[in-house]
Amino acid sequence: MDRQNLETVLMENRKFVPSDEFKKRAHISSLDEYFTRYRKSIDDPEKFWGSIAEELHWFKKWDRVLNEEDAPFFKWFENGKTNISYNCLDRHLETGVRNKAAIIWEGEPGEQRVLTYWDLAREVNKFANALRNLGIKHGDRIAIYLPMIPELAIAMLACARIGAIHTVIFAGFSAESIRDRVLDCDARMVITADGGWRRGNVLQLKNIVDEAIQECDCVKDVVVVKRAHGDPFPCHIKEGRDHWYHRIIDEVSAVCPPAEVDSEDLLFLLYTSGTTGKPKGIIHTTGGYMVFTYLTAKYVFDLRPEDVYWCTADIGWVTGHSYIVYGPLANGATCLMYEGTPNWPDKGRFWNIIEKYGVTVFYTAPTAIRTFMKWGERWPEKYDLSSLRLLGTVGEPINPEAWIWYNKIIGGENCPIVDTWWQTETGGIMITPLPGCMDTKPGSATYPFFGIDVTVLNESGEETEAGFLAIKKPWPGMLRGIYSDAKRYKETYWSKWPDVYFPGDGAKKDSDGYYWILGRVDDVVNVSGHRIGTAELESIFVEHETIAESAVIGIKHEVKGQALVAFVSLKEGVKASPELEGELKHWVVKKIGKFAIPERIIFAADLPKTRSGKIMRRLLRDVSEGRALGNITTLADAAVIDDLKAKYEEG
Ligand code: PRX
């Protein structure tokens, strides 16, 4: 448990009360109403979730809301038949939502596109037909490696429409990471673009895919969206395998009847880091995920018909899946989507977008907020942000200082802040304020969402004030497994205590019943909201020909929340040098992607180990954070740590 986090949390007792005006119009407008509905949702989850599911379209109604017989392999809305693309699109076409903007998109160079629900439905239908023409069938896996352009959402919805399973790979991942994911799920197709804009440059996505799939015989077709228009490099198209997106959608009908998929049919896989060297393919299925993202989006973002809702995440992460695509579209909301970075062409880009489109709900990450703080108030102050009515954060604990800044400078002290705790595995938001009905405290995710039975447990499974966060009951948006690894699913999430889900986070519950998330308690590091497993990085380092051993840890970082520090020992005869450090950083970029580069690489003669040979990471953390060393009695060779300390302090 991170003691410093715990102390910060214990000292924070400011409360912020939502305005009467917000309260009056909120979906859930009083704490009493929240508690009453929460109680009902916990006492009778089947009744609660069943009645929410009735708000959506089912081709055939489920036989049973929850089947717990084969726990932890739970089934939700058993034998129900539905389609999430139908619920995100067709369901709205008979209503006033038909002509409303579904996606308002801005490219980094400045282009704008608006797709109404009608337009989006046509595009999705056409692409779904094109996929069918290429032989894609129900249950096929399709990897998507696209920039933040509307075709990314279109591709996901088109897969869902025909019952194909998408796995979106964030466009910052390297060729090797793509290859590993494609092979793990045996993907039949990759959908990519010639390029995508990022900080004024074109990322050459298609070239990266070409390299990635050289060894992937499973990939039969590659669909390429023309985004960069050959600028500044040409895109090679391999006859027979590669197809331009605009060509294949040109030849097809705009009507593609949705597949009537089973509630428990796989909707998508999303790879995320865990505590071993291999990323896990998290499985999400259709019905439960649809109901959960629909309801959480509606209540947490208090969606109203006139909102312009902007989630700044990349769709390559779960936040974008649940709260750019599925949740908001199931609600008929208008989503803003932006392709590029916040500092292009200058540091005012986000605020310019908020002013230009009159954004009302803004959802971003604490690391972004801390970056904006560093850039200074003069950037947001140049723009009119008065359209905003609600702010949100996600991805990591928000420090109270950043929360206060967000509230004052961006929210004008007039917008509730929803600090939403959840994970790739949970599918949707689990602990969060419901705006309007709850007072907020900077740094606290407040109360559990409806149907989420949360507690804090100690190692032996007893309730405690500060300990491990635990979820006591299944919920509809929960992961259904790890792709082709049922054993790992059970061991990772369901074996710490019997029948309780273990998310891997530390937490504290205060005397008002508010939850404070204290960060990961396992070897997963959260760098700028990106999850990176230290074991994954360690195994990459030892694959390098110069490295004998490595230990990677996370340390506190002012802007990124956490940063990575790698301690590496070199093989006999290899000398440490700045060139080697550069080469190792390049190695990480090649193996994972830029975002996983460690803040520092320390060359060590040896690593601190116990007599049984286990690396003592705790001591490495003490060294890196400048603390007095903890207990070193179990250390095999005490001189090792002095040497490391000296090296670390040398800079
Ligand atoms: O440690 C928690 C942290 O992010 C982890 C989940 O990461 P990922 O699966 O990549 O999903 C991120 C977006 C949902 C959690 O185990 N985390 C996420 N949100 C919060 C948070 N920690 C504290 N407060 C949050 N609001």
UniProtKB/TrEMBL annotation:
Chain segments annotated as coiled-coil in the UniProt record: none
Residues that bind Mg(2+): V542, H544, I547
Positions contributing to ATP binding: G395, E396, P397, D419, T420, W421, W422, Q423, T424, D505, R520, R531
PROSITE patterns referenced in this protein's UniProt entry, alphabetically: AMP_BINDING
Annotated signal sequence range: none
Limits of the AMP-dependent synthetase/ligase domain: 98-482
Function according to Swiss-Prot or TrEMBL: Catalyzes the conversion of acetate into acetyl-CoA (AcCoA), an essential intermediate at the junction of anabolic and catabolic pathways. AcsA undergoes a two-step reaction. In the first half reaction, AcsA combines acetate with ATP to form acetyl-adenylate (AcAMP) intermediate. In the second half reaction, it can then transfer the acetyl group from AcAMP to the sulfhydryl group of CoA, forming the product AcCoA.
Superkingdom, natural source: Bacteria
Sequence ranges assigned to domain AMP-binding enzyme C-terminal in this UniProt record: 536-614
Keywords for the protein's UniProt record, in alphabetical order: Acetylation, ATP-binding, Ligase, Magnesium, Metal-binding, Nucleotide-binding
Ranges where the Acetyl-coenzyme A synthetase N-terminal domain occurs: 34-88
InterPro entries: Ac_CoA_lig, ACAS_N, AMP-bd_C, AMP-bd_C_sf, AMP-binding_CS, AMP-dep_synth/lig_dom, ANL_N_sf
Family affiliation: Belongs to the ATP-dependent AMP-binding enzyme family.
A Gene Ontology cellular-component term: cytosol
Top enzyme category: ligase
PTM annotation, UniProt: Acetylated. Deacetylation by the SIR2-homolog deacetylase activates the enzyme.
Required co-factors: Mg(2+)
Pfam families membership: ACAS_N (PF16177), AMP-binding (PF00501), AMP-binding_C (PF13193)
PANTHER family noted in UniProt: ACETYL-COENZYME A SYNTHETASE, ACETYL-COENZYME A SYNTHETASE 1
Chain sites annotated for binding CoA: R198, R199, G200, N201, T319, N343, S528
Name of the protein described by the UniProt record: Acetyl-coenzyme A synthetase
Residue positions where N6-acetyllysine is found in the record: K614
Reaction equation(s) it catalyzes: acetate + ATP + CoA = acetyl-CoA + AMP + diphosphate
